[in-house]
Write a structure and sequence with these properties.
The protein is an alpha/beta fold. It is built from 4 helices and 8 strands. The protein is 32% helix and 25% strand. The strands form 2 sheets. Strands 2-1-5-6-7-8 form a 6-stranded mixed beta sheet, covered by helices on one side. 22% of the residues are buried.
Length: 129
């Protein structure tokens, strides 16, 4: 689930299973009312990563003067924090590269699993448990 300033982003799918994403008037008005925007991602599955990318790009285009923060309590792929064999894919590294490419002002996490996750994320802040 993804929320923008506390309001859930409505997601559905077209018949071909592609994403249909709508930013409600309430979300847009709420973004105009503050000097910053908080995007809160309660991870449910990897498909939400594409939703997060679209939400962030939309906010960048429409609220370019706002500081956009990501609150991501759980770090997906954090358990893949090391590669032991050639066949192991370092999914955490690639996941963090995608998050970093979105250029959030801060990325707030909780229980990072290891310092590797924290080292791979830009502008990260670990909230104490």
């Amino acid at each position: 689930m993804i929320k923008v300033n506390g309001i859930e982003v409505q997601q559905s799918n077209f018949p071909d299973k592609t994403l249909l994403l709508k930013m409600s008037d309430t979300i847009l008005q709420n973004c105009d009312d503050t000097g910053y925007i908080n995007v809160h991602w309660l991870y449910e599955n990897d498909a939400e990563l594409f939703t997060l990318i679209c939400v962030k790009r939309y906010l960048d285009e429409n609220f370019c003067h706002k500081a956009i923060h990501l609150v991501m309590p759980y770090i997906p792929h954090a358990r893949m924090d090391r590669v032991k064999n050639n066949e192991d894919v370092f999914t955490l590294k690639y996941f963090c590269e995608i998050i970093n490419s979105l250029h959030f002002v801060t990325v707030e996490v909780r229980d990072a699993h290891s310092n590797v996750s924290l080292a791979l994320l830009n502008n990260v802040y670990e909230e104490p448990i």
